Amino acid sequence: PPAGPPGRRYATRALSVAPSPTAHATPGMIMFSSGEAYPESLPDLSELARRAALTHRTEVLQYAPRFGLPELREWIARHVEQDGIRVDIDSVLVVHGAKQGIDLVSKLFLDPGDAIVVTRPSYQSALAIFRGWQAEFVEVGLDRDGMRVDELTTTLAERTRRGLAVPKLVYDVPEFHNPTGVTLARTRREALVDLAAGYGMLVVEDDPYRRIRFAGEPVPPIQAFDPGRHVIGLGTFAKLVAPGLRVGWVLAAPEIVARLAALKADGGSCPFTQRVLVEYCREGRLEPDIRDRVRTYRAHRDTMARAVREHLPEA
Q1: Are 72 and 278 in contact (CB under 8 A)?
Q2: Calpha distance 134→241 (Å, rounded)
Q3: Residue-by-residue DSSP string for 228-287
Q4: Of 46, 102, 134, 196, whose CB neighbour count within 10 A is largest?
Q5: Helix-strand-coil split of the chain, %, nearest 5
Q6: Which phi-psi region, left, alpha or beta, contains residue 146 (left: φ > 0; alpha: ψ -120 to 50)?
């Protein structure tokens, strides 16, 4: 993008970032450009919000603890146990959506020009964040089993031979990859953890879609294969409950979590929405709502697939 009119002395890192478009959806238009929730699937949280404001008024109207509400952090730690991830509360940081987690990880680890491994293609919002921190992209291809870890192995060996720095981070969306939809095979997850350990890299596992599965058996998260703490996990309530709540989490070694918390410019994420989520989960509403959401989205997926086959057969 252009540098801007005279007198606009933008930061160097901002010159590679295009301005956001201002166009909005018109009435009757269904936007496929972002992961918005189906409106009818959004839960009624009004009673929980009333209870939070009344019963927990002195908590939710104050600044939040920098790491997040302890009760929510404890719930998250127990929630991920079902996927084979064993962490305690000191490994959990509540953030303002998973994208803030990506931004904080970048802020903590990336200097201008540092290399980061991404798939080709990759999640556009994450790429925009990495560009903002002036990262160099090392692109790795995908196939039906996800990231080509064998290609990454060859690429890293070639970089070493040429005297180039080892990438600091490997970023992937292993479950229903954005934008391709493929899932990283179990053997590749194990190989990626071994590769990261061998080269001293960190894997950033962005996993918003795990529970929104339409068919097949789940694969354990990359972090479940990581006894050496080489994986930073990112999760979110955006797809599980509602994106507008803007609550996500980071799972990492305690020393990483403590540094990420210190870098949080917001001090602590909104305690009101955290309290609403604590009460929502305690009432046992999450799992039934996820099952309903999966049924709804599976039907929408099937309808879209039929429409594409009928009206866009060349696609």
Answers
A1: yes
A2: 33
A3: T--EEEEEESTTTT-GGG--EEEE--HHHHHHHHHT-TTSS--HHHHHHHHHHHHTT-HH
A4: 102
A5: 45, 10, 45
A6: left
> Number of helices (H) and strands (E), helices first, in the chain?
10, 9
In angstroms, rounded to a whole number, what is the distance separating the alpha carbons of residues 256 and 52?
A: 31
Which strands, in side-by-side order, build the sheet including 202-206? 92-95, 248-251, 231-236, 202-206, 169-172, 115-119, 136-140
List pLDDT tens digits, range 60-74.
999 999 999 999 999
For residue range 22-78, list pLDDT tens digits in order: 667 788 877 777 778 888 999 999 999 999 999 999 999 999 999 999 999 999 999
The span from the CA of 91 to the CA of 251, in Å, is 5
The pLDDT, as a whole number, for residue 156 is 98
Q: Are 218 and 83 in contact (CB under 8 A)?
A: yes
Q: What is the pTM of this model?
A: 0.92
